[in-house]
Structures are given as structure tokens and as C-alpha cells.
Write a structure and sequence with these properties.
The protein is mostly helical. The chain is built from 21 helices and five strands. α8 runs parallel beside α11 and α13 crosses α16.
């Protein structure tokens, strides 16, 4: 390696480290939010009870292996329980993500400019950047998944085998990502390596068989028992499949992904790419076939690896264009954080920085409730407003409002509504139009309203 090339490598890794550290500094006190609230609850369970036999209580068991949570628990045990330490534990995954992306670019012989562009684009994608702000196992899946893809393409089968096990240990979706990676390997590598790839999967297959067998032996169920996730693990009927297809279509449109999709089409028509197009198409198809078959709501974060791999054809195309094309794309991706639908359409709040406005108005609402002495037991709301201060910040009280998802509101005295909550039904929203607004606040794209039930109010009078 000559001196100039070595300097370029150092420059790219230095900028990568600066980006990661900047994200950490900006997010080091960011509270648990959305599905990471489950992570908070599981960690607090481990802190209070220890790891035990690694089997979670039924009410916390969403079917995922607990080893990501166990890793966070070990870091917290060493350095103390705080949001800062929890985010510190995510730093290795962010560094690993940068390394995996840059290593993949090396494999495809990207130059220094193309690597820097890819790095900037990666953290400009709202879903990737927002998940990087959270204590999220989806970032771990993304980083380890891209690393496994590297090892598969480079025919480093022992490392591929080891990290495939790690990928499967993070989450059930790690298995789905691994399937996509294997199919990419089949397409990109010579046929003679297919058997070696399959053989290298044996440890991860054994791991899954042992873990889920052990889980079943200890609990009597494979993924989840009688809890809130039960209805999300059913086989989808025709109507749900149709809804899922529409939802998946949104995953190629929302939060700036439409820009990446269009640029992939343009670059393809311009004949600037080759098989790199299939790097994202294959996992997108594999993941979509799996997700469409179940009743589980499909999140934008499920496709993080697809979004990052969409960049490879684009960067090759944009690197040959004037720099302002890349600047425009970054601006469009940033602006797309504010692509928020109306109250009756669900939004992927955990994949947009727009959710940052939620926390201040939630604190204002909590202060108002405390000032008026309105107790949490008298208030109905839905996820994620049902989370306690302790669950979000690891400080404060454990009081939770009542979850009225799918419930009749007649006997509820107050409803705390926010557009950040997707679980209010259309019928409930129609009913709330007749209720009295006693407090409300808006911050940019987030709003919050406290309603009082006029029927109960009149009875009290």
C-alpha cells in the first residue's frame, strides 16, 4: 500500500469515527422510545433479578433471544445504570456499522470520494440516523448483517459462520436478514462456493435449534405466550396480506427512500451499475415475503439493511455528477424527516427525527397533570404515551396511564392524545371530537391534547 492510499484510508476512518462520536454526543441522554421501551423494561428486569436462566417473564417475552439485552445488562453492571451508559454500549455497533460499510465498499473497489459519499448518505437516511439515536437492536442487526455480507462475499467462511450465529442471537429478524445475505452470496459468488456457504450456516442453524428448543422447554411456547405480541405472530389472512403489501410499498417511499428508489432506477437506465442492484433487491424481496405472511405490523426499521445497500448503485452514479447533486440528495433526506401523515394514518416515528419534538410536550403535559392533580389512573391513552418516566428516562415515577387501545372510552374520565400514537382507532378519534379539550400544545409536527369526557364531567357536576 502506498503512502497516498494509506492516508486516504486514515482520512475515511477518521471521518467515520467523528460521525459516530457526534451521533453519540447528540444522543447520549436520549430516552427510550417506541419499541426500545421494551428494551428498557427487560434491562430493568435483569437489573432487579439478574440474568437467571435467560428466560424472560411472559409479559416481556416478544420471542427474541435475550442476548442483546444481556450484553447491555453487562455494560450497565460494569459502568452503572444511566442513559449515558446505555448509549455508550451502542457505540461499538455504530463503529462496526461504519467498518462494515467501508469494508463492503473496498470489496466493490469504491474510491475515497465514493466512500465518503456513502458514509454521509448512510447517516442521512432518516431511518438509519434515528435508530442510531436510540438504544436499538436494529442497529446491531444492520451492523452485524453487513459484516456477515462482507464475509460471505469475500469467502471468509469461518468468520461468516461465527457472525451468523451472533446475528441470529440478536433478534428473530436476524434470521430473516441472514437468509437474504445467503441468497446474495449465491448470486454474487461462483456456484462452487454454494456448498461451503451452506456448510458455514450449520452453527447458526444449531444455535437456533438449541435456543428455541430450550425456550420451548422452559416456557411451553416458541415465540410468545399469552401476551401483547400474540396477535402479531398469526398467519395473515387475505385482507391483512393486502394491507401488508401497501405497508411494504410505503417502506420504499417514506422518509426519503423514494429518492433512493428513483435514483436506483435512473442509474440502472443509465447503465452505470451491474449486479450491485441485487444487493438490496434480494433482501427486500426475501424480507417482504416473510413479513407479508404475518399479522405483525411492518416497521420501516425492518428494512435498514435494504436502505443502506440501496446506496451502492447510487453512489457510483452520483460520484460522476457535479457535487451539488449529492448535496441535494442529503438535503432531501433531511427534509424527509418531516414527512408526517395525518392522524388516521400510522407514522414510523422511530425512523424520523421528527419524534424529538415529542419529549418536551410530553413533559409539559405531565407538569400540567401534576399541577391539576389529575392522577394517571384516571387517564386513558395508547402506546407510547403509556410509558412511565422510569421506563423512558430511568428516573422518576413508575405511574402509567391506562391503555385504551381497542377499548370503549365511555368510562374513561380523561384521554391524553398525541399524533405520535398510532393506536387510536378511527372510532375513538371520531368520539373525541365530542369531548372537551382542557389542554393542548403543538411543537412543529408533534401535538398533544388532553380531553375530558363530557358525560363524566356532567355527572360529577
Amino acid at each position: 500500500m502506498n503512502f497516498s492510499k494509506q492516508s486516504n484510508y486514515r482520512l475515511v476512518f477518521l471521518i467515520s469515527a467523528m460521525v459516530v462520536l457526534l451521533i453519540f454526543l447528540l444522543s447520549k441522554h436520549h430516552p427510550f422510545f417506541w419499541d426500545t421501551l421494551l428494551t428498557s423494561s427487560i434491562l430493568q428486569h435483569f437489573i432487579e433479578n439478574g440474568l437467571g436462566n435467560f428466560i424472560l417473564p411472559e409479559n416481556l417475552d416478544a420471542g427474541h433471544p435475550p442476548f442483546f439485552y444481556a450484553y447491555l445488562f453487562c455494560v450497565i453492571t460494569l459502568f452503572g445504570k444511566s442513559l449515558f451508559v446505555a448509549h455508550l454500549a451502542m457505540l461499538p455497533f455504530l463503529f462496526l456499522l461504519c467498518y462494515a460499510v467501508l469494508s463492503l465498499l473496498d470489496y466493490f473497489k469504491f474510491n475515497t470520494k465514493e466512500k465518503l459519499l456513502t458514509l454521509l448518505f448512510t447517516f442521512s437516511i432518516p431511518a438509519v440516523l434515528t435508530q442510531s439515536f436510540l438504544i436499538s437492536y436494529d442497529i446491531a442487526i444492520l451492523a452485524i448483517g453487513l459484516l456477515c455480507l462482507n464475509f460471505a462475499l469475500k469467502k471468509q467462511f469461518i468468520l461468516f459462520s461465527i457472525f451468523s450465529v451472533v446475528l441470529c442471537s440478536v433478534s428473530v429478524r436476524g434470521n430473516f436478514v441472514l437468509i437474504g445475505i445467503v441468497f446474495i452470496s449465491f448470486l454474487m459468488n461462483d456456484r462452487k462456493y454454494i456448498v461451503r456457504t451452506i456448510i458455514s450456516l450449520i452453527p447458526s442453524i444449531l444455535f437456533c435449534a438449541i435456543w428455541y428448543g430450550y425456550h420451548y422447554a422452559e416456557t411451553g411456547y416458541f415465540l410468545q405466550g399469552n401476551n401483547g405480541w400474540q396477535e402479531q405472530r398469526n398467519i395473515a389472512d387475505v385482507q391483512t396480506i393486502f394491507k401488508n403489501i401497501i405497508s411494504i410499498g410505503r417502506k420504499l417511499f417514506d422518509f426519503g427512500i423514494v429518492c433512493l428508489f428513483v435514483l436506483n432506477i435512473i442509474s440502472f437506465s443509465d447503465k452505470c451499475i451491474d449486479r450491485k442492484l441485487f444487493l438490496w433487491i434480494i433482501p427486500f424481496v426475501i424480507l417482504s415475503i416473510i413479513f407479508v405472511s404475518f399479522t405483525n405490523p411492518i416497521g420501516h426499521r425492518y428494512y435498514l439493511i435494504v436502505y443502506v445497500l440501496m446506496l451502492l448503485p447510487i453512489v457510483k452514479y452520483l460520484a460522476k455528477k457535479p457535487s451539488y447533486f449529492s448535496v441535494i440528495l442529503i438535503l432531501l433526506l433531511f427534509i424527509s424527516n418531516y414527512q408526517i401523515y395525518g392522524a388516521r394514518v400510522s407514522n414510523g416515528w422511530d425512523c424520523t427525527l421528527a419524534h424529538l419534538y415529542y419529549f418536551n410536550i410530553k413533559k409539559d403535559a405531565d407538569n400540567y397533570l401534576k399541577e391539576k392533580n389529575i392522577q394517571a389512573e384516571n387517564i386513558g391513552t395508547v402506546f407510547p404515551l403509556t410509558a412511565s418516566s422510569q421506563q423512558m428516562y430511568w428516573i422518576g415515577d413508575t405511574d402509567k396511564m391506562n391503555n385504551v387501545n381497542g377499548e370503549n372510552l365511555d368510562s374513561t374520565q380523561y384521554i391524553l392524545y398525541s399524533n405520535i400514537a398510532n393506536d387510536f382507532s378511527d372510532e375513538q378519534l371520531d368520539e373525541l371530537k365530542e369531548w372537551k379539550i382542557i389542554w393542548q400544545k403543538k411543537s412543529v409536527v408533534c401535538n398533544m391534547i388532553l380531553y375530558e369526557n363530557p358525560t363524566i364531567e356532567n355527572e360529577l357536576q
